[in-house]
Give the backbone structure.
Amino acid sequence: MNAPMTSIERLHLELPELDWITDPSRIARLSQDFAWFSPVLDRQLKDKRADAVVRPRTEGEIRALVGACARLGVPITIRGSGTGNYGQTTPLAGGVVLDMTGYNALLWVRTGVARAQAGIRLGELEKHTRPSGQELRCIPSTYRSATLGGLFGGGFGGVGSINYGPLGAPGNVLGLRAMTIEPEPQIVELRGAEALRMHHLWGTNGLVLELEVALAPAHPWLESLVVFDAFAPALAFADALANAPGIVKREVAFFASPVPDHLAQLAEHLPKGCHAVLSLVAESSEDPMRALADAHGGRMTYRKTAEEVKKSNRTLMEFTWNHTTLHALKVDKSLTYLQSSFVPGRHVAQITEMEQRFAGEVLMHVEFLRGLDGLLTCSALQLVRFTTEERLAEIIRLHREHGVRINNPHVFVVEDGKAGGALPPDIVEMKKRFDPRGLLNPGKLRDWPVKP
Amino acid sequence: MNAPMTSIERLHLELPELDWITDPSRIARLSQDFAWFSPVLDRQLKDKRADAVVRPRTEGEIRALVGACARLGVPITIRGSGTGNYGQTTPLAGGVVLDMTGYNALLWVRTGVARAQAGIRLGELEKHTRPSGQELRCIPSTYRSATLGGLFGGGFGGVGSINYGPLGAPGNVLGLRAMTIEPEPQIVELRGAEALRMHHLWGTNGLVLELEVALAPAHPWLESLVVFDAFAPALAFADALANAPGIVKREVAFFASPVPDHLAQLAEHLPKGCHAVLSLVAESSEDPMRALADAHGGRMTYRKTAEEVKKSNRTLMEFTWNHTTLHALKVDKSLTYLQSSFVPGRHVAQITEMEQRFAGEVLMHVEFLRGLDGLLTCSALQLVRFTTEERLAEIIRLHREHGVRINNPHVFVVEDGKAGGALPPDIVEMKKRFDPRGLLNPGKLRDWPVKP
């Protein structure tokens, strides 16, 4: 008599036509993301893996899989391209990783809005919007591989957030189509605020099938690096550029020395020891941007027109946000990072204070953006010379004591991340509605099932 | 023996081929603008007029006229369409009014930038930019008739300034071609900051021939009115809408009761006694805008898509900024107005305080915009129930005592207006360079010639 079948074996048997990935090394890889940026998460998550990965191609396949998992009680962890940093795609309790990258059709592009299946890569989506002079409003530096669903489920914003704020600002995501995790899965269209209740919940309170997002007009972007001898004028230039209402931009980042020394692929444009400002401004704003750089004593060392960027297939966007972290970690394995947000209007003073307080240990990398309230401020993805987990926790505590908000990137439980604390009732309601059996990556929500 | 010829007769004789306007009633009309909004300016300026008006069609004609005026010592007052409010086009010392509306060719439209002769009407210029999906960044409500040169010389910004700040923010005006007022006029191209030294000087420190301005991507704008029963939620909605980074907009105005009662042409959409918010948002932002209106208890009473606006040839833009004032003054001749700016971040509190302080006498009309520093704030063009010039001065003083900046619209001397006080050295330098004989509307600059 054979051993009883596992749930996974039953799934394979029941749904043989699905694109199953069973090779253990591929399963291991598809169970991970960029959580290795954090030595803490790396220790906690590196051995977690799915029992199987499946890559559905149609809504029917997704529905069949979800229904079967719900009947069999198999956990489901939804995955885009795995470019997240908090183990969003890492199953804490095994089960199936549902790789959405095969479910990637563009549905339509209209003036100001596009709709696509969740597994579409952001770079691919922009190929469809560009012919009508449109682009995505906020994209991560990983836009080439990252998926639309992954950005919505596990991301925040990025390039373009200097104009449109975070992805969660009302108006950026207009609606979505989602599936419940039940034996007979239901499919629902959610609009506006209701749709946002599934945003940045790391795929724990619903399975997003399609997303409808607002678009931005695409300008021809001039990509440049301006370098400075000193911290203060470089930061002042970046802040002035970010604020200037007549200078149209998509991205402004500030790398304090020695961050630029870690960007090996740009070394010829970044003199050793420099402080650098990376920006994308509309070509029509080049003159006022250069005048501002001159006024702050900056020197432009890199300048590519939109046409040159397109031809070279190399963009400075891939040196911003968490790509800066990635490039630095490639050069120096002892580094890790932080994610901070500063108080609008006090951001320059706070950054300067933190720079002085932690010089040499915390390396300042600042990204300018608008907050949910529309105020211009900064986020920082500081590089940290890692020593111990205790010291890392102390650095976080000291930042918080100085009024700097830390969105701790060294935690993998939703409530410990950006949300900070207990889940709001509307999020819990969504969880109950869309995942009544608690099968979406169990363990990722600490407060689920809700404790009595 | 005949009487000796006047300088004007000499000009006619010397330049017979120019398009001279000599009819006294037309001269009188072309010597005036909307200074009658102010009972103070009306009293001071209504009898001022030119000796002749000339409407050149080519740079050669302008050059010939300017050279002859310089040789003969005839004052020149530069005029666009006369939509200004401070007597910008009213000659204080007679001479020639140089009507630029015949010098109105489009030179080119490129991605992000357009260049045209100064006399082009803004509405006409937008007809040339629209085919490439572009529009002007900041336009006054008078855009149908107002000229590009007039906006630059006597204007501030307007619709669109909620995104791009005032016209004077670096990046909005990229360059210009100007002529010196000399017997042999010189023609010079000025770029960037140098060009801005002729901005808002009311045509007193140079004759602008051509302007090069940055453009904005044109969205299909949804025009709407949302009405409220109370002041506070209406203002809160307007402020939230203006700030929301994910809601793309071109215009947000707030009319406190009883301002809407004065907009007779919109009466069917503005219930008696209501407070109203007028906005232009991208059609793709309609849903989040409506959700915000609902959350504040607002009710949409007017809604036109971009297509409907185009077909009807009626736009709500012509009820904003100083058009609000115009519509109100048509209904109630006893009204005049103020121009105020509020402190970013304190603007809602300041507006609320002023509303309470002056209820019934100062009627609140608020326009949202970004300042030069990029911060979102408000400007107000309050309607004032005029009693005496003394009381008007007192109202201004009381606003200033409460930290509200008043750009006094009841003065006609440049130094008393927005610039507030002595002219900066770079402006004086420009005056010396471009108008060494002081022929540009003498009297408009108090400090010219510079007193020893």
Chain B is about 30% helix and 20% strand.
